[in-house]
Amino acid sequence: MEDTKVEDEKNVGLLSSGYLESQKIVLPKDVFRNGFTWFCYETFKSLAFRIWLLSWLPVTTWWKMSTNWIYPFLATNLLILCVFFLPLIQMLCRKRTLSKNLTQFSKEIIANSPGTDVENWEPIAANLNSYMYENKFWKTKYFFYGAWNCQEAFRLAILEPFSVKKDDDSKLKSFKDSVPYIEEALEVYFTEVDKQWKLFDTEKAWNPVNLDDIQLPKETYRFKLTWVLKRIFTLQCLPLFLHSLNCIYISWHYGLLFRIPYLGCIFLMNMHTFQNLRGASMKNEHKMQFLSSIINEREIGANGWDHIAKRMNRYLFEQNVRKNEDFFFDGIDCKWFFNYSLCSHLSSKKTLSHVPLDVELWPYIREAQSSCTDESSVQI
Question: Which helix (H) or strand (E) holds 305?
Fold first, then answer.
């Protein structure tokens, strides 16, 4: 009976999720001028903002009735400071609401079969926006701003947390009744990802005609430091650079014993962030092309990694990931990126919002690892 009930609930969810398919999909990105105006609108409609507004009434009354101005003044300043916490409260409420609707989220994924392409997530985002508003889980019709927000929510709320848990008990404890729906949703998602992978791996979707025409940055730059500095002084790294300058300025007023370890920690943290920026600039399809190039590379050793670096530099340039063919400095840098940005995720025990674990690519990362191991054994 329980199995029949679960199956019926799934069927109801699948049928109800398709009511937007016959209509034109409209998301908040099509309604609002930009993401900032959408976020302001969502904040103004939130319960936290209304409580904040009502809090001004007793403070105003206090100003009129109090003979001592210091306490109303402190209360006014406290309310003004609370404005900066409203976005944080809004984010926490959004996360809590999503955690209550993982079952419906999974049903939408089962119904629409999305892959790694952002466009495939548009009907899911639109359906969930309507579902949460109509069922009074959210105050507005604009929970997800765009399809990419929906895809990122899936990564942070379902894909990575569920995948890093090794046993059924921990999954049941964290996700409760949503487990059967999540398992089916992930199976559907991984099937779509595998279809996309086969396009890269079997058709070898992109292959340069002549690698001799492509130069690596190590051949055009005199020093590797020049190449690194060129990457640092870009708009993408500007906030990181300004943050470093601000930390240097702050530490200048303290003693040498404090300044050295403080700046050392800041340097290591910024280097970690800087290294992750390169991986974050690649979409899943770019990483698939990278892994496919590693698996299908016939040359072994340093020459093989140089070939992969050349292919990827040209490919990422043509995909507008980089303005120049300088993503990888040389084969050594290419191999380091593979080990640091992809292989290291296989042993991850927790999710990180700023660093995707690329869970859907784990089988292909292992295949690429195995390919590299086989080449090393042949070389020996």
Answer: helix 301-318
Give the number of domains in the chain. Answer: 2
Q: Which residues pair with 239 in a beta bridge?
A: none
At 168 the three-state DSSP class reads helix
Tokens of 47: 């319960």
> Looking at the structure, do residues 228 and 150 belong to the same domain, yes or no?
no
pLDDT given for residue 171 in this prediction: 67
This prediction's pTM = 0.77
The residue with greater pLDDT, 172 or 38, is 38
Q: Domain residues for 217?
A: 211-236+281-379
Three-state DSSP class for residue 68: coil
Whether residues 21 and 103 share a domain: the answer is: yes
The CA–CA distances, whole Å, from 349 to 162, 163, 224, 232, 359 equal: 11, 9, 34, 30, 12
Give the 3-state secondary structure of residue 355: strand
Indicate the DSSP class of residue 139: S
Please compute Rg for the chain using Cα positions.
26
Q: What is the Cα–Cα distance from 42 to 138, expressed in whole angstroms?
A: 10
Encoding tokens for residue 173?
């404890």
Distance from chain centroid for Cα 204? 27
